Amino acid sequence: MDNVLNIPALIILDVKENDIDYHFTVETVAKPSFCPRCGGTNIVGYGRDVQLFMDTPMHGKRVGLHVKRRRLSCNDCNSTFFEPLNDMDDKHRATRRLIGYIENRALYEAFTKIAGEVGVHEWTVRSIFKDYMNRKQEAYHPATPRFLGIDEAHLFHKYRCVLADVKERTIIDLLPNRNASTVAEYLRKHATEPDQDRLYGYVAALS
Ligand SMILES: [Zn+2]
């Protein structure tokens, strides 16, 4: 039965199901061997709390993992803490694989639909997607093209400015419109220091 979840760190103690949900009661295989705060090994059990983490749907049903999570206390630094759960995201009370599942689907499906299917609140989906976008944004470092192509595209009954890397044949950005002031502002904002002077004449001509 332990293989059903495919999370080796967890033991399944009980499973219940109805038409729309699976409820697994689980606990970790082993208790942690050191304190996450001081690294000390003088730690003792301090009871358990049951915490619910949602997981990816299985056989078309939502999956809830009720984790009987150990509370521990460290005799070296006198702190108390919950055992770490490496497969779980504590912030969103979901398994990491559910986070990945939501991130992928939120790109092209309604948040409310996803929320209903996996059994979390719409706000949780929103929050997961926001975190995902922030991570993407931080990792995004566009290279300055050797030749910048400036063109227009007629999209959704509106002309928009398209900026492209001519040599690499890739789209760099899409501006909300093709007004000279919009384009000039964009170039001004994105030009690096040495380019500022060279761009100045060009931007002045546009404005
Ligand atoms: Zn400690």
Describe this structure in words.
The protein has 207 residues and is of the alpha+beta class. The protein has 2 domains: 2-139, no CATH class; 148-206. It has helices at 96-105, 111-118, 122-139, 180-190, 193-206, and strands at residues 10-17, 21-28, 43-58, 61-74, 80-82, 88-89, 94-95, 148-155, 158-165, 170-174. The strands form 3 sheets. Strands 1, 2, 3, 4 and 5 form a 5-stranded mixed beta sheet that branches. The longest helix is centred in the middle third of the chain and has 18 residues, at 122-139. Bound molecules: zinc ion.
List keywords for this structure.
5-stranded mixed β-sheet; elongated; alpha+beta; binds zinc ion
TL;DR?
This protein is an alpha+beta fold and about 210 residues long.
Principal-axes shape call: elongated
For the record, give the distance between the C-alpha atoms at the N and C termini, rounded to a whole number. 69 Å
β-strand percent reads 35-45%
What is the total number of structural domains?
A: 2
Count of beta strands? 10
User: Which consecutive residue ranges, at least 5 long each, have pLDDT under 50?
Assistant: none
Order of helices and strands: EEEEEEEHHHEEEHH
Can you summarize the main beta sheet?
Answer: 5 strands, mixed
* Secondary structural class: alpha+beta
Could you estimate the helical fraction of the residues in percent? 25-40%
